[in-house]
Amino acid sequence: MSRCVEAAAVAATVPGAGMGSAGLRPPMVPRQASFFPPPVPNPFVQQTRMGAAKRIQIFLLGMILLPVRAILVAIILLLAWPFAAVSTACCPEKMTHPVTGWRRTIAQRILTFLGHAMFLSMGFTVTVKGRIASPVEAPIFVVAPHSTFFDGIACVVTGLPSIVSRLENVQVPLIGRLLRAVQPVLVSRVDPDSRKNTINEIIRRATSGGEWPQILVFPEGTCTNRSCLITFKPGAFIPGVPVQPVLLRYPNKLDTVTWTWQGYTFLQLFVLTCCQPFTKVEVEFMPVQAPNDEEKRDPVLFASRVRNLMAEALGIPVTDHTYEDCRLMISAGQLTLPMEAGLVEFTKISRKLKLDWDGVRKHLSEYAAIASSSKGGRIGIEEFAEYLKLPVSDVLRQLFALFDRNHDGSIDFREYVIGLAVLCNPANTEEIIQVAFKLFDVDEDGYISEDEFSTILQASLGVPDLDVSGLFKEIAQGDSVSYEEFKNFALKHPEYAKIFTTYLDLQTSHVFSLPEEGQAVPVVASNKVSPESHEESASDKKDD
């Protein structure tokens, strides 16, 4: 288990800590506005509450509506299959040329009509606002918020444009043939170049001048509860062509459509929706958005602007959550934490703190080891002290405050990740490692003994009986630590650089010159380690 928090504990203290006001503290880590918690903590959860009366109503209506609607949906799908089969006859799964002529007419007109009939049979009443752009005006539709499998109604309303789908989906009986009829952009999981090939195919179709059908993309990449717009993936914006934003709303008193990572299953939502007398849907087509020169060079900038416009029209905020947050939610559940504990706004955290998914996932395992015994999956001061094997003191409370960014008395996973990155990842250079080794090598014999190691850490914390043998054994191969062992450990665990840099800075700010010969030695708090002189601060000595 990583001991980065233990390293931060040392970094948050100074010589004389634990001695009341004599021990100065370093300034608190600045709270950057960019790291403030998101306006919507968890957009991937939906809890639809129904009273007893509503449940009885659903049961009674369902006895009639559910079987009738299920039969109608099955009949419409069976009717659609032969038309889809004719329109895609003799065409490969991955199309290299667009379907044209009468076959394209069949796919677009008849299947669109049957699509409207299917959603009508399920009780959907659709209200369309705005004007649908032509393929020349906007080769790409971007639809948000994406909250349910019923969002496929946007495909029907827009005239069955091409969509991005997994290659495995076209191999599913019945559904696969219907999917092929819309000439999808197929993504292969086994192809290592799949992402690049998909982007190239989107660019080729979007710049074909109307030869290919328009492409419909859900840029969020996963379903949310419509409380915000999460990060837009740049795929739809990379071609640098105009896009038409499409808004989806479900203005119903009872939400039976939202399909999130925490909530009703696919089958439950389908049954609940079919048991409603009707379900309202609003599809709004916004004005076409064309990228400027800067946005053509930077698709992320284009995606951000379009997302902000759509969020403003919907009256909801934006957050930097993404699909990777969903993966972390699943990992949190596997670690016996509440699933929402894994949410960190991955896009923002990874960009600003230079962390990849594997790094954040590793931190989640460390966090779970600390928070597993706490309620709600959050670390309190008691769990913090227990993990560090330190008493609850002013020193520990100050360190805790460095992590507790919103000052609510607990540390969630997001605060933990930010705290580690801010406290534990300074430059881990060869020069710092050399100076640090000299700091611990008190007798300058080229090796660090456990006594020397303990002396520095105990003096820093102001806890004379602190047991550091566990950490020492992680570094040492024997009874002492050589420079190569110290260096290898430091390079593998860059978080410990914070001990070195902070402790040296603090020593510099607490320099005490040695007395003249015969002069009494001044008392220096409880820390027995101090530099020999103002100039010689690289190597600390024991003043026996």
Structural descriptors:
544 residues; Recoverin, domain 1; 7-stranded mixed beta sheet; 20 helices; 11 strands; elongated; disordered C terminus
Describe it.
The structure is a single chain. This protein is an alpha/beta fold. The protein has 20 helices and 11 strands. The chain has helices spanning 4-11, 52-87, 101-121, 153-157, 175-180, 194-206, 266-274, 293-297, 299-314, 323-334, 346-353, 357-371, 381-388, 394-403, 413-424, 430-440, 450-461, 469-475, 483-492, 497-509, and strands at 124-129, 140-144, 162-166, 185-187, 215-217, 243-249, 279-285, 448-449, 480-481, 529-531, 540-542. Strands 1-7-6-2-5-3-4 form a 7-stranded mixed beta sheet. A two-stranded antiparallel sheet has the order 8-9. The chain has a two-stranded antiparallel ribbon with strand order 10-11. The protein is elongated, with a radius of gyration of 31 Å.
Which helices and strands appear, and what pairs or packs with what?
Elements lengths: L3 H8 L40 H36 L13 H21 L2 E6 L10 E5 L8 H5 L4 E5 L8 H6 L4 E3 L6 H13 L8 E3 L25 E7 L16 H9 L4 E7 L7 H5 L1 H16 L8 H12 L11 H8 L3 H15 L9 H8 L5 H10 L9 H12 L5 H11 L7 E2 H12 L7 H7 L4 E2 L1 H10 L4 H13 L19 E3 L8 E3 L2
Parallel strand pairs: 1-7, 2-5, 2-6, 3-4, 3-5
Antiparallel strand pairs: 6-7, 8-9, 10-11
